[in-house]
Amino acid sequence: MADIDLASIETVDGLDVKGKRVLVRADLNVPVEAGAVADATRIERVLPTIEALRKNGAKVVLLSHFGRPKGERSPDTSLRPVAVKLEELLGAKVLFLDDCIGPEVEAGVASLKDGDVALLENLRYHAGETKNDTAFAKQLAALGDIYVDDAFSCAHRAHASVEAIAHLMPAYAGMAMMAEIEALSAALEDPKRPVMAVVGGAKVSTKIDVLTNLAQRMDMIVVGGGMANTFLFAQGIDVAKSLHEPDFVSTVKEITEKAKASGCEIVLPVDVVVANELAEGVETSVCGVNEIPSDAGALDQGPASIARLKDKLANTRTILWNGPLGAFEIAPFGEGTYALAREAAKQSRAGTLISVAGGGDTVRALNMAGVAGDFTYISTAGGAFLEWLAGKQLPGVAALAGAKVAAGATVA
Could you point out which of 51, 181, 228, 323 has its C-alpha 20 to 30 Å from the C-alpha of 309? Predict the structure, then answer.
């Protein structure tokens, strides 16, 4: 988030909202199965902001996208089921409006009393949303007096309800948005050191920018998953059938050189769990990284590697985690990830480690290890989390700080 003064972002704390219409940009893009919300995590994240605004007498108007309808209406992309779940969680009536702009919406918002909540229909039913169209943003802004962005997971998108609208009316960060900014700033911008990043996943090609940025900021980067195989291959190690990307050897060497110049240690496995195929119940063995059988592939980090990581973690004060160490979805190839996660959780509980994690696979792995609740902060964002790690400007955050969207910012 270079060139952005995060300290200039104003929050809803102490904000006078009594009798005012407050537009709250939330991320209510949640899984819906058989017409009902299947996972309410993202709804729950925005509840504290909604409750605080209601308590202080605001008329709360919620804005969100849902799926990728591409301007076409359909029952599968309606926010109506979300309104039902929101009512249940709030224990209060939620007025659902069948559009997000237009006379009927204006009338619905005008009918709200202090403390009432309304949810507008899917913003992406209008092409102006994803085009960051100022005219569409003005129609949204006309519905409220104050704008609150509580959707960090959408902050990497230069969309009308995220970026353009924040320049048209008084704009503030909601509680979930600030919690995310503060957690990521604590881990990346000004961390307690030593700071360790765990970056895992299948392919280096998907996280080049992340690795390049972190190599110049972290004290050490633990590389896991298939990415570690590519790093080992770049060192001339025969990784046999292990998933790796030979075409990215030069990229890996560039990242390694940047890390070396910055005093950042790249930590690779010294032993691995191997098998002939990635399947449940398959026969496995452990070997050094230089001894991978020609008919096998590395699918997790071995016990010596994990013991080494635990030793390094003992002297670490901040850990930033994105991506598993192995193919955790299939037993027993999650044991390395779980072991390190439990150690990080233990140190977090003891107050000796600040632990910040994010990304869908990471959160799933931490939940499977039973330790997600022990981490200092778990991000529900996906793309926005990765772009922050890559050092990119997030249009939604920049707009709250009063900065215009940077050229080339994500639109889709």
Answer: 181
